[in-house]
Amino acid sequence: MLWSARSSLSTRAGKCSWTRLGSTSSVSVEPKSTSTMAFDPTSTLLATGGCDGAVRIWDIVRHYGTHHFRGSPGVVHLVAFHPDPARLLLFSSATDAAIRIWSLQGQSCLAVLTSHYSAVTSLTFSADGHTMLSSGRDKICIVWDLQSHQALRTVPVFESVEAAVLLPEELAPELGVKSTGLYFLTAGNQGILRVWEAASGQCVHAQQQLPGPGRELTYCTLVRSAGLLLSVTADHNLLLYEAHSLQLKKQFAGYSEEVLDVRFLGPKDSHIVVASNSPCLKVFELQTSACQILHGHTDIVLALDVFRKGWLFASCAKDQSIRVWRMNKAGEVTCVAQGSGHTHSVGTICCSRLKETFLVTGSQDCTVKLWPLSKALLSKSTAPESGPVVLQAQTTQRCHDKDINSVAVAPNDKLLATGSQDRTAKLWALPQCQLLGVFSGHRRGLWCVQFSPMDQVLATASADGTIKLWALQDFSCLKTFEGHDASVLKVAFVSRGTQLLSSGSDGLVKLWTIKNNECVRTLDAHQDKVWGLHCSQLDDRALTGASDSCVILWKDVTEEEQAEEQAKQEEQMIKQQELDNLLQEKRYLRALGLAISLDRPHTVLSVIQAIRRDPEASEKLEATVLRLRRDQKEALLRFCVTWNTNSRHCHEAQAVLGVLLRHEAPEELLAYEGVRASLEALLPYTERHFQRLSRTLQAATFLDFLWHNMKLPTLPAASSAL
């Protein structure tokens, strides 16, 4: 089994992927830092507020500054144009919490609105342009009359408001807008959207408060043409609502920081769930990358696991609790059960394998708990109307002397393995958690334990950088795999238990063959610790998540590579047969071109040797080489460098070089790709070959001289008697 990266979900801060991104124009804005900016309704003017208290207006089309307003104390953190471009009005607010109205036509300050006592966070205008709503961190919203520059109404909203939006003047019963008048929506540190009636100052609608930190809203805007409302949370998530009902339409996950665990979801592994350094879980649909953000935990989620059918999955967190979630056929996920009982962070969780009957959790309180699931949770049609079902632990067992980092349930649901920072793994009998044996041998704490799906074998991954396989019968170590440069954080059996997939603190994912202890593939795509590793039900895909905020989907390419290799071999055989036929027919030009296309120097050498065996070798070689294309001549020159290093093949190399040097102009030869490196490699061996030939010639000349100057004795005449 071999793997290749198929796709990735990257959530690094400040990193965006665009289909097309280009700069149309640039303006040199301010010598000092710019704190805010805004475009006018025509998108031809840009207003900027600086840290020096200045407000500047820039012409985007002609690239120059048109206005420079001074008078704001401190940093200008908010600028906004009036929606009517004919009025040429600009509004700004600085650290003094006052709102200044600037006239672009008169190049002066028309009015200063002073009713806020803290920073003004947003300005929004009515459709007719006569009314303005301002919000601030002083927990009030103010309605202004822009004709008289007076405050019409001050509405206390009892939260620090980051954005306020004036709603369209039309009825929306679902939002509590049942009469005509001015209504506005606020978003602030409570993390909910609320609708207010300006006339009475009453809140007529409020979203349901969800648990967990990071829910504070930092921005909100209304897209009137699309009828949508967009809000931004403090943990960089974008939430898109239907404007008339505040029904959630889409969610976009933002910065995830460290990814701590990942799992496939669905019966066909159509979704993935990601636990990052956050109390929220993110569920992505792989085909569309649509995201659903799940709230429930109040502290960072540490681990995940999925039941065999893929509809139910479980999570555990630092809030000392566990939760069970269910996904329906539409891909919507809800929390159906929760449990608490550990006295410290719950760092690992494992689901039963045969049936959806129980959960096992391990905690930093050194205990393991077994949680049975009721049959009501298994029905996909029932939904908990009164909230999640409360789970009760059936068995609690103190298993180790230090933190328990991993628990694993055997494929038959009868055994439990635990791995701890105390450097040992232990085997327990379920459901009573009776100790059966201890696996000792690692030099540092264990991060992961896994049962083999086929054999009675347990795999352990340790901070000592090794993976060990243990026999369940006698608790002996069968094999040790070494190759990671740091802690091995996760291990999983693949290929029906014949291979191992491991991930480590070195950012590497390694594929091991158990039979020969060989690492057959190292996948280097992450830049930090790979905490999450999970394989699909068919073992054809793998999922990894790391501290570099990336989730990468890997695909098994064994069959593709084997098919590709087989196709290459067949193609090579066909070309070799064609080459033999061309040489038999003495079609040297096509034979040489075919041999060069195979990129095999020895095959090209055999063609050159066949040409030189021809009675008219010199003319044939010259005619064939000169008719080659330039790229073929460049390849032939590279092959000559290889041949020239061997005294048996140097004659062919010198013959080809002789043809090129005699018939190619020096300018053309120098234009060949890599010709300088080739000449530098040819010169020393050529000099050596000529020195050898010189010595051979001297020896032959000396032998010839000796032969001609030797005086042989005259043979005696044969006896006449004989």
TrEMBL record:
Q: Does the keyword ATP-binding apply?
A: no
Choose one Gene Ontology CC annotation of this protein and give it: small-subunit processome
Q: Does the keyword Repeat apply?
A: yes
Q: Which InterPro entries match?
A: Utp13_C, WD40/YVTN_repeat-like_dom_sf, WD40_PAC1, WD40_repeat_CS, WD40_repeat_dom_sf, WD40_rpt
All copies of domain U3 small nucleolar RNA-associated protein 13 C-terminal, residue ranges: 576-710
Any Gene Ontology biological process:
endonucleolytic cleavage in 5'-ETS of tricistronic rRNA transcript (SSU-rRNA, 5.8S rRNA, LSU-rRNA)
Which SMART domains does the annotation name? Answer: WD40
Name the Gene3D superfamilies on file: YVTN repeat-like/Quinoprotein amine dehydrogenase (2.130.10.10)
- The UniProt entry annotates WD repeats at 27-60, 69-112, 113-154, 294-335, 339-381, 397-428, 439-480, 481-522
Report the protein name in the record: Transducin beta like 3
Q: Tell me which domain of life the UniProt entry assigns to the organism this sequence originates from.
A: Eukaryota
